[in-house]
Fold this protein.
Amino acid sequence: MRLVSSLLASGAVALIPVVAISQGPQTHRFTPTQFYTTYSFAHPPALRIRPGDRVTTKTIDAAGVDWNNKSVSPGGNPQTGPFYIEGAEPEDMLVVTIEKIEPNRATGYSGSLLAPYAVTPQAIAARTDRDAKRMIWNIDKVKGIVSLDSTDITPAHLELPLRPMLGCVAVAPARKEAIAAITPGAHGGNMDYAGVVAGVRLMLPVNEPGALLFLGDGHARMGEAEAAGTGVETSMDVEFTVDLVKKKTIGWPRLETDTHIMVLGSARPLLEAFQHSTTEMQKWLMADYGFSERGASTFMGQALEYEIANVVDPNFTVVAKMRKSLLPRR
């Protein structure tokens, strides 16, 4: 049986058994032609892959427009996939490492009004700009910027650093549910966290045989909380690798970067999303870092950080973060 280092060990290596592989890791190049606007076990696998494999693929934008500026799907965050991971079973944990996210066209679009839940009702009532307008941004990968020139706004020129991210990464939901691709939850989905960038490792619960991995909703950049209802929406070239931790049950998506471990809880109201992320972080510290229940509570009270990932989707998303440099070494 193949062994991999635990992604969750801080300063120590804990070997965790994962699914056996009969051949070395493979690289798959997959150009999608079919897209889905729901996460569901019922969608047939687009590609079968094994733990350790790398996939090079593409996503289309949230409105269904591809890398050739051609409309190829209805809108609503159409997803690439699902990818069937051999050996994945319910109660396993899928680990998706995002190796690359890169825009594959020169433009993206965004909204131009703050979303209803981002401001007070009084602010909405007082608006002078009431018409929703799509703003077209230019994407310059050489300069590493996105820019907007429009006579509809002041200042008429905006320029920001390029920071590609994926709004959606998900597995098939539990209980045979079909969930709209605009919705985040325990399965992942449209979490719209600006931190889902190249180099991160996203951990998702496996609910169905093969896990059935979906991804999409690429943004050339996006402000935290997605306060205007969109990022700079565009199509992407994406590379990712997958691994599988057997018999490792988690309740909510987890994320690891070089500096933090994180939990992404989603619900409405926002307080419930906060509670999900906090509860799952406590469970993680107890399971993998040697904390007692009271020890985790005491530590979290002085060390925990939070971000609001989105306040615009059917469920809102809160990120509980723990700095890895503060965690005890095992």
